[in-house]
Amino acid sequence: MKNKTRILCLLLLSGSTTYSQINRMKNKFELEQNTHLVLAQYYRWYQVYEVPFTKKRIENQKDILTDDVEIVSQMGTSKGKEGLEDRLKVFEGWLNAHHVQNTKVTQLADKKLSLEADILYQNIRPDASKHSYTLHYSTILQTRNNDLPRFEKLELKPTGEVKEFNFESAYVENRAKSFMHYWLYLMETNQNELFKELLASTFKLNLSDGKQIENYLDFEKWKNAATAKIATSTHQYKNFNVQETEEDVFLVSVDFDWLGITIDGKEMTAETHHEWILKNDKDDRFAKMKEMTVTIINPFVIKH
């Protein structure tokens, strides 16, 4: 809040920005930022089904649900997250993959968010039978201050059946994209303290200017310096690729189109390429950043 107040004062003292312009700047990327927040949770939804169950992984699944969550599917309607362990037992021994095809986030009243999504679901059961079909998800999430939203309703409807298919695991991609969207949200909203969950105990960040960051104090200084110049920002990703190079080590390659607003109201753009090494503990809420290397594709420029 102190940072927002400082930016507001700077803008008003400059005489070049009105209150209405500040409000538009503040909200300009709100939907894009909230989309990252929702997708961080949505990709987490699938992960408990795609690896063997443990008590901790089931607790992480409960973490994304409200206490009175309603889940509607072919298996019927369930209310509340208590007893989730028993409801998951039907999936023991199954191989499950959830390939997300498209998503759309909408902002609702009462600080709620809606997600509509389509996936290709694949599964192989203990009797070796194979099943695959497309599903449409309609969901509503409750937002929380300075925290991840929680699903209060999920409705799953089958939209088609796939007769022949080759099973392909989706866990690594879903795990990496969940991390990516949360990382981007924190970058865009300047919530430095929450990054601690996403950084490995030892990490190295190789920035595009040649600077290296290898401890949290330097990371915080770097983020604060960026915050002093940029009022708000957003990222669109493309060319995403992830590979598990060894067990629980992911190599992510991705490009970002970045758009920001300076504290004096000017739009800036850039395009960057990122290479990430993520260390994964399946019992953690998120994978963690072990190493990041950033290179510039198109430099940061002010739009005219």
N→C terminal distance:
30 Å
Work out the helicity level: 25-40%
Strand order of the largest sheet: 2-1-6-5-4-3
Largest sheet descriptor: 6 strands, mixed
Q: Report the portion of residues in β strands.
A: over 45%
The whole-number mean of residue pLDDT values reads 91
Query: What's the order of the H and E elements?
Result: HHHHEEHEEEEHEEHEEEE
User: Structural class, judged by helices and strands?
Assistant: alpha+beta
Please give the number of β-strands.
Answer: 12
Q: What coarse outline follows from CA principal-axis ratios?
A: globular
Total helix count? 7
Radius of gyration: 21 Å
Given as residue ranges, the uncertain stretches (5+ residues, pLDDT < 50) are 1-25
Question: Which structural traits does this protein have?
Answer:
304 residues; alpha+beta; 6-stranded mixed sheet; 7 helices; 45% strand; disordered N terminus
Architecture overview:
29% of the residues lie in helices and 45% in strands. It is an alpha+beta fold.
Briefly characterize the structure.
By secondary structure, the chain is an alpha+beta fold. It is built from seven helices and twelve strands.
